[in-house]
Amino acid sequence: MSSPSSTVSAVAAEVLPQAARRRTFAVISHPDAGKSTLTEALALHARVIGQAGAVHGKAGRRGTVSDWMDMEKARGISITSAALQFEYRDAVVNLLDTPGHADFSEDTYRVLTAVDAAVMLIDAAKGLEAQTMKLFAVCRHRGIPVITVVNKWDRPGKDALELMDEVSERTGLVPTPLTWPVGIAGDFRGVLDRRDGSYHRFTRTAGGATIAPEEVLPATAAAAREGDVWGQAVEESELLDATEADHDQERFLAGETTPVIFASAVSNFGVGALLDVLVDLAPAPSGRPDADGAVRKLDDPFSAFVFKVQSGMDAAHRDRLAYIRICSGVFERGMVVTHSTSGRPFATKYAQHVFGRDRESVDVAYPGDVVGLVNANALSVGDSLYVESKVAFPPLTTFAPEHFAVMRARSTATFKQFRRGIGQLGSEGVAQILRSDRRGDQAPVLAVVGPMQFEVAQHRMENEFGAPVELDHLSYTIAVRTDAASAPAVGAARGVEVMEREDGELLALFRDKWDLRTLQQRSPELTLEPLVAAQL
Ligand code: GDP
């Protein structure tokens, strides 16, 4: 029998090879581009689920594994985030789900702090849409390499070369197509693999419910079969050869280029190709800088940070989960880690992979993996966890809120529940919670980036915490940072209010930028600093 310490070191020796197998990514897209469909198709390819959509229903159409919660179902949008893990070839793929709606951009931002690559999913007919651009800006800001998937090629859409121009002009990334469509959008015959010149014929299966068999033909057979349509694809591909449109791994990792593939997620076409691109080209996890800039190496002792906290996900599991991304070392269920913020120990007795409604116990996990820690009441978004040598990763950015409302319990009898709910929503990052002596504890102000966050907060206060609330919208649209020295003078200005956020930051709320500018001009000595804008 091996001693516990030799078991630990045997597992530790696995860290580097295991980390090298990991591909951790998220899909960024505008609502309706096909993110849920693609996620489901990826899971199907990995054979996590036997048949696409078999897991549960979503209003009006076949359900997908990544969407849940009543409100999501009712609205048909994905609000919360989860992670799907599966093996593909020799790799372990972690797909982190992101909310599609713009109002939850802050949630998505946090998810993007936990990935090593992003897949930018574009609807062939719509090109780059607003939310895609916002999320792309986050990837660029964080230096995350981006793989582009042009989806819905089975439907009429834009011209492929035109789409490449659009990508290049609007993102500044040089598109380097790995595959090129044979047949225009709506007349999808298949793709030309630009790496070896072969033809991958588009085959569909009913409803895309099972993996479509891939038929690969050499160029000569493709020419005989598709005639002019093949000829045109070859011509366009050669046109790309003449530009700088060939994949260059270094430039891709540096965020200068984006490999592109063409797909039809609903027919599962291109999904295998995407998985291959992820395994072959997307980066594995690497060391992560801490708040002081020192790099925590992959094989240093265990460390992780919380990028998402969630509770009351569904009636069957009414508990609080903290999702951590592992940065270094090995995670073993049951290990006791230190919570960096409080210095207190945290026992990881219950650790799970969570995706949609499905949960599975995690025994061992490596850098790049996401683990949901159950009953993590002490953990908040942005917190770090470690063993042995202390580490604190940089705090996660909170966006500048643009909407403000006072929240009150409808009945004073539920004040205890109200207070508990507010605390919970604050630590999950559902809304920023602002307080002041003037407004008192019973009337905190909720500050959000998108108004739908109010709806989520209101819904959860009533349904999860048993404290029905009313919201009183305020006319502020801007919050800036101030400090204790400036606060009295700032707060005395007309139409301005100073409140304290849960992290101790003092925020000055203004009705509009003119009010802010007026005060800045009149009293330049006052501290009034911008917060990070939602658009970055
Ligand atoms: P999400 O909002 O980005 O998650 O998008 P969904 O996955 O819910 O897809 C939106 C709609 O587009 C659904 O009706 C899908 O069936 C459809 N869709 C997704 N991918 C494709 C595709 O490749 N081709 C076609 N024709 N429709 C697709």
UniProtKB/TrEMBL annotation:
Subcellular location: Cytoplasm
Pfam families attached to this UniProt entry: EF-G_D2, GTP_EFTU, RF3_C
Binding site for GTP: 97-101
Species of origin: Modestobacter versicolor
GO CC terms, sorted: cytosol
Family: Belongs to the TRAFAC class translation factor GTPase superfamily. Classic translation factor GTPase family. PrfC subfamily.
Keyword Protein biosynthesis applies: yes
GO terms assigned for molecular function: GTP binding; GTPase activity; translation release factor activity, codon nonspecific; translation release factor activity, codon specific
SUPFAM superfamilies registered for this protein in UniProt: EF-G C-terminal domain-like (SSF54980), P-loop containing nucleoside triphosphate hydrolases (SSF52540), Translation proteins (SSF50447)
InterPro entries, alphabetized: EF-G-like_DII (IPR053905), EFG_III/V (IPR035647), G_TR_CS (IPR031157), P-loop_NTPase (IPR027417), PrfC (IPR004548), RF3_C (IPR032090), RF3_dom_3_sf (IPR038467), RF3_GTP-bd (IPR041732)
Domain Tr-type G, first and last residues per copy: 20-286
Name recorded for this polypeptide: Peptide chain release factor 3
